Amino acid sequence: MMVGAVLVQNTSWTNAERAIGRLASSRALSLTGLRSIPETRLASLIRCSGCFRIKARRIKNLIRHIDRAGKGGLKELLGRPAVRLREELLAVDGIGPETADCIVLYAAQRPTFVADAYARRILYRSGFLAKRDGYAEARTNMLDQLPSDAAILGELHALLVRLGKEHCRKSSPRCPDCPLLGVLCAGVRSRDN
Ligand code: SF4
């Protein structure tokens, strides 16, 4: 999950999944495997996810951070309170807010809101966000309105991503057959694009 959160940066989940498959078939998809694999080899295995040299360095940075977390390693790290875990992840070179929130939400199963581009676009168009907030503002805004429950927030994020891909696309949104139309959203024409 943590590796996937890095691999999906600036690409589709399909490409990230292919890279994960290559890591798994090379027996590198484990703490031990990722610790021992040379960075150049790691980069070549994840080439299909794009920006592969940068992502290989970021994955190595994460592994070093896990190793520094103490003898409990990954379990110790993911067991920390959400706020502290998020702050620690953000201090790792190459881990931004979206990646940190994905790790907190899906790997640590702690409540947070992943205010990615899909979420911000849908929430703005449907009126849940009053303006085109940036990541931090949108996240805070939504966390103030939503239950602090990782399962609900994870499901919500997954549904927003799906809606963003299938209906609420950046260009040519498919409002007429969107399940939110008339229920939670008046359609893209009700707001500027
Ligand atoms: S109705 Fe249109 S603007 Fe609203 S969420 Fe659906 S696709 Fe997006």
Mind explaining what this structure looks like?
With 193 residues, this protein is mostly helical. It has two domains: 2-107, Endonuclease III, domain 1 (Orthogonal Bundle), CATH 1.10.340; 117-190, no CATH class. Helices cover 58% and strands 0% of the residues. The longest helix has 17 residues, at 52-68. Bound molecules: iron/sulfur cluster. The site of iron/sulfur cluster has 14 residues, from α9. Iron/sulfur cluster binds at residues 122, 125-126, 167-168, 173-175, 178, 180-181, 185, 187-188.
Features:
193 residues; Endonuclease III, domain 1; globular
Q: What order do the helices and strands come in, and which of them pair?
A:
Blueprint: H1 2-7, H2 13-25, H3 31-36, H4 39-45, H5 52-68, H6 73-78, H7 82-90, H8 97-107, H9 117-125, H10 135-145, H11 150-166
The protein binds iron/sulfur cluster.
Residues 122, 125-126, 167-168, 173-175, 178, 180-181, 185, 187-188 line the site of iron/sulfur cluster.
From the alpha carbons, calculate the radius of gyration and give it in angstroms: 18 Å
Considering DSSP H and I runs of 4 or more, what fraction of the residues is helical? 55-70%
What is the succession of H and E elements?
Answer: HHHHHHHHHHH
Please tell me what the overall shape is: globular
Q: Mean of the pLDDT scores? A: 93
Domain module tally: 2
CATH topology of the largest domain: Endonuclease III, domain 1
Give the total of beta strands: 0
Low-confidence stretches: none
Find the structural class using helix and strand composition.
Answer: mainly alpha
CATH class group of the largest domain: Mainly Alpha
Ligands bound to this protein structure: iron/sulfur cluster
Report how far the terminal alpha carbons are from each other: 33 Å
CATH architecture of the largest domain: Orthogonal Bundle
Main beta sheet: none
Q: How large is the share of residues in beta strands?
A: under 5%
